[in-house]
Amino acid sequence: MGVVRTIAKSIREYKGYAIANPFFMIGEVACECIIPFVIGELINVLTPTGDATIVIGGQEELLEIFKYAGILLALAVASLIFGFLGGKIAAIASTGFAKNLRHDLFAKIQSFSFANIDKFSTSSLVTRMTTDTNNVQQAFQMLIRIAFRVPLMMIFAFVMSFSINHKLSWIFVCLIPVLGAILIFITVKAFKLFSDVFKRYDNVNASVQENVKGIRVVKTYVREDFEKAKISASSNDLKNRFTKADRLVSLTNPSMQLTMYVAYILIGIFGAFAIVAYSKGDLTYGPLKTGNLSSLITYGIQILSSVMMLSMIMVMIVMSAASAKRICEVLNEESTLHNPENPIYEIKEGSIDFDDVSFKYSEKAEKYALSDINLHIRSGMTVGIIGSTGSSKTTLVNLICRLYDTTEGEVKVGGVNVKNYDLDTLRNNVAVVLQKNVLFSGTILENLRWGKEDASEEECIEAAKLAQADSFIQSFPDKYNTYIEQGGTNVSGGQKQRLCIARALLKNPKILILDDSTSAVDTKTDALIRKSFKEYIPSVTKIIITQRASSVEDADLIIVMDGGKINGMGKSEELLKTNEIYREIYSIQNRMGGGK
Fold first, then answer.
1. Using CA atoms, how far apart are residues 457 and 464, in angstroms rounded to an integer?
2. pLDDT tens digits, 235-245
3. How far lies 186's CA from each of 138, 196, 359, 433, in Å?
4. Which among 181, 212, 511, 577 is placed 20 to 30 Å from 439, CA to CA?
């Protein structure tokens, strides 16, 4: 029930449609159940002798025939109208519900911290917003339309069949538990299979996403055949498991057909005896005429078809139950980061302090990613962070803008613990150009305005000049209105990095963090970017993570990281004398021509 309550919150403004739909179902079912009774009465008028001989008498009989024909036409039209309106309302309710559900999922994901996102793979989140949401949408539409219609149909059909001949109607009562037991057995077995199937969707989506994202690498290393074989293996595994589940579910139809044919045979045999006996005045089988037998058979079909539909609903619910559970895992996930009760909405200056900070990515992790970090950076300083791959340089700066929270100790910005700031305020004042530069589909101006939504074109140009991006932008035919393809595939790596730096500068931050964000630009452009920073944003605290010693050689403070700890701190001249790691990096790069 917890899953249902969570999912149902997304119905919201479409609740009225969902509630109104059953009323149209009542009208449609009532018409469909009255029609066989009227047809039976019409047949009785046509066969007054009680056998199958059709006799059309005088004017009175003709009037009776036209009367029943008129009633049938009216009922058919009414049933059509009720069915159309019910279907339309159910479609509006289900598609609106799915829209809200996708919105709620996306909004929830946007609120996640990096720690939350680490729990779910990207491919899994995509599956939950697409395949899983579609399954839940179909189940919801089936519930508000067919699931309400089925019990109504069974009740109406039972009432009408018992009103015609209660003795023969017991045939249906006896057959329903048999069919129901078979369908329940199939449904229970199918649940486990479908639960596993949707987990396999994640694997297929992960393979596709990884392959498409790295298509250039795949082609460079001529690995197309290998990747096709890998996708084929995942697809075949999914196909085999789905086939197994569908094979089991497909047994519902022959079970239904078998039960229905048994009902036909029994009704046909006992009905024939009843008609013959009744024509002779014998009420052993109850009163029954030829038209009544026709109606009874139709009601039998409606009753057994309702059971069949019920099984289809159960199968759909089984399929959607696994999907709903996966969706609720996201909706019920609480972000590890929260605003304090009385957040601070102003950051006065860009000083940074790490006081006895230690951090690990998971509570269950045995090893700390950062240990015993004590660091004090004055506002306006240029700080370089250097170290080998895996030395936790990025992890260190992620704590400044609260992409993660410390496990132990405090991180302060402007003399205030970052946990006391409003999250939006903190992140608007701490601009980060991440290691993986991401541009979105749209013009260059639209991408730059991610930094400041209402930035004028002049402000965007100024930021681009500081990031040394204006020169290459001006070379494009459409200049700042040049369209950027998804992921920035139509610009080079260095151009992408400079656009991301310009975007960050538009935030007018107190702290600017460049996480290896000039690795794809040449050393001359790198030096020009640093010169621009020094001349035009001297009051901004600048943290530069890099593998190049030349990029941080003139920094006010250089931090050398090793194994999640600070191995050394100081200016370049000091570290060349006192720190072996920095001295080795510096000497190797200068010997190989990697210096200034």
1. 10
2. 787 778 778 77
3. 20, 16, 50, 54
4. 511
